[in-house]
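Quick illustration, no need to memorize.
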Amino acid sequence: MCGRVQGDPHRELAPRADMANKLRIRINWPRLLANMSKQEGRAMSREEVRQWLVDAGFTHDEDDYWIVKEPDLGQLEPSEVISVEDA
């Protein structure tokens, strides 16, 4: 969703971050835990990774499901996500 600047009808504005689509994703926990542990060089707990998700802009929904703005989804590898749907 792009807006236009008043006075110049041809100049496009970038989409606002707060207007980004929200997605409901299902996390592949074994894959995410393995990847995060490898990056950190130590075994990470599920709680540590949950906190990282919150700090990265994800909101827990239920079970393995999280809500995230579309631009923030890129923080995860495709293999770390089982499913994606509009929130």
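Residues 1-14 have pLDDT under 50 and may be disordered.
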